[in-house]
Design a protein that fits this description.
Pfam families (chains A, B): TetR_C_14, TetR_N
Number of strands of chain A: 0
Oligomer: homodimer
Number of domains of chain A: 2
Biased composition (Low complexity) (chains A, B): 1-13
Structural class of chain A: mainly alpha
Number of helices of chain A: 9
CATH architecture of the largest domain in chain A: Orthogonal Bundle
InterPro entries (chains A, B): DNA-bd_HTH_TetR-type_CS, Homeodomain-like_sf, HTH-type_TetR-like_transc_reg, HTH_TetR, MftR_C
Largest sheet of chain A: none
CATH superfamily of the largest domain in chain A: Tetracycline Repressor, domain 2
Domain HTH tetR-type (chains A, B): 33-93
GO molecular function (chains A, B): DNA-binding transcription factor activity; transcription cis-regulatory region binding
Strand content of chain A: under 5%
Shape of chain A: globular
DNA sequence: CAGTTTTGTGCAGTCACTGCAAAAAGACAG
DNA sequence: CTGTCTTTTTGCAGTGACTGCACAAAACTG
């Protein structure tokens, strides 16, 4: 049956890579998601409680009731549980950019797509604790930065396709990188602002400054 | 002798922190610099030859002819040898920003200061190999990102003092973060450009795009 | 139920990194 | 030169992240 959807189903897949053709209703799928979520929730909770340094992978797994070895079937490092983006979000980003209106400026497309990504992230159950842990332990950014770069790459690829250039084009690269930077600064600003401040507004304001060429704000 | 230059000379200092009052001519000072340099040169060279993954701290120390334990007296992680900034550069940055002309726009001050920092880094003997290793092994950026954040912090602090605001001010933060991003993109672009391209020009062009609000370039 | 595929687990091993205490070596006064 | 103080190097023992491998357990399929 060479015409099957899976040309090479023989390859052993790791639990983390949800095979494309796996039906969402299966028990395996549900268990996999449950395990991943349990590990992430346990880890983030313990990080928040005792500080990331004091928490070992063994602790996390004890709390999630799985074997220590299993942790690394789902996350490549202890701190990866702090990544706010679903793998799917990163993958989708380039496509979302492409399907923005063609007359829209690249920076605006980036803002729109990253805004959606942020909404998705914030709807996750662990978002708040993730953000707090990262705020209180800036060293951990090291371990999370790779996922931001992945998001940036996807963003840049989308922008390149949309503007019919290459992902190596300096302009497109700068827009992508600056957009991610704006995202980071917006979140940081938002975290320190009044509780009723909306993240969407912080993001808008930050991108607005970028559009104004980072000129100094007016004094009154 | 409480009147000495060192009020508390009893504290045990680690070799990495060059005590403020140490005379530059002393044999200790020279040996310390030599050891640090030997370790860095050995590490970067071996990284370039066999790939960072295949090189252990033990290998590095064997090549530099010091004990493995000594490595961690100078660097906090194996990959820290790839940081292009001298610790001094990071420290000086805020001051350099402050001493820029007062009428200069913040983004321009940042460009000027980062340009100098880049010149300093490029004058180092290991710069080229550092850059190549980082280009060929993007995963390692994780371990270097902290030093970029430190540079960013120093930059932001200088900008805040210069514009008489606080380092938490969203505008100042964004300018600092964007400037570092521009630096990164400029270096990346430069690495892929023709060999006669000047890094200074890439930097100028990148900042120029930022000043133009990241508007799309004109089509001809 | 029997066979296949995927997921969980145990085990052994490598290696980065740390604290501690003692050895080695430079600095300095007399 | 000698003894003393300070700084740097080193050895040692330990923790814990992470990996490869082989096998057990569980889920899917017919």
């Amino acid at each position: 049956m060479a015409g099957s959807a899976h040309p090479a189903p023989t390859a052993t897949e790791h639990p983390a890579d949800t095979g494309v053709g796996t039906r969402p209703g299966g028990l395996r799928e549900r268990k996999k998601r449950a395990t991943r979520q349990a590990l992430q929730r346990s880890a983030v909770t313990l990080f928040r409680e005792h500080g990331p340094n004091a928490v070992t992978v063994e602790d996390i797994c004890a709390h999630a009731e799985v074997s220590p070895r299993t942790f690394f079937n789902y996350f490549t490092s202890k701190e990866e549980v702090l990544v706010p983006w679903a793998p799917e979000t990163i993958t989708n980003t380039s496509g979302r950019v492409v399907s923005r209106p063609s007359e829209e400026a690249p920076l605006d497309s980036a803002q729109a797509v990253l805004g959606e990504a942020l909404d998705t992230a914030m709807s996750g159950e662990v978002w708040r604790d993730q953000a707090l842990v990262l705020r209180d332990h800036p060293e951990l950014i090291e371990r999370v930065v790779t996922s931001f770069r992945a998001l940036e790459s996807s963003l840049v690829e989308g922008l390149a396709r949309k503007t019919d250039t290459s992902p190596e084009d300096p302009y497109v690269r700068l827009v992508g990188a600056s957009a991610i930077t704006a995202l980071r600064v917006a979140v940081q600003t938002w975290q320190e602002s009044e509780p009723d401040e909306r993240l969407r507004d912080c993001l808008e304001e930050t991108f607005e400054r970028l559009r104004h060429g980072l000129r100094p704000p007016h004094r009154h």
